[in-house]
Specification:
- With 58 residues, the protein is an alpha+beta fold.
- The protein contains 1 helix and 2 strands; from the N terminus they run E-E-H.
- A two-stranded antiparallel ribbon has the order 1-2.
- The longest helix is centred in the last third of the chain and has 10 residues, at 48-57.
- The termini are far apart.
- The relative contact order is 0.37.
Length: 58
C-alpha cells in the first residue's frame, strides 16, 4: 500500500503527531489541534519527505 505523502509533524524536529485514540475510529484519524511537541514546536501539515529531512538534521 502506498503511503500518504502528507502528514502532521512538528515544524521544529519533524516528529509525527500521534492521533487521538479516544476520538479516532476506523474511518477517521483525529488529531488534537492544540497539541505541542516535546521539543516545544507546533504541529503542522507537511510533506513526509520534509518531516524526514527535519528528523535527520537533529
Amino acid at each position: 500500500m502506498k503511503q500518504n505523502p502528507i502528514i502532521i509533524a512538528c515544524e521544529s524536529c519533524g516528529k509525527p503527531q500521534q492521533k487521538d485514540e479516544s476520538r479516532s475510529n476506523e474511518n477517521w484519524n483525529v488529531y488534537d489541534t492544540k497539541a505541542v511537541c516535546e521539543c516545544g514546536g507546533k504541529f503542522k501539515i507537511m510533506l513526509r519527505e520534509d518531516a524526514e529531512k527535519l528528523r535527520n538534521e537533529t
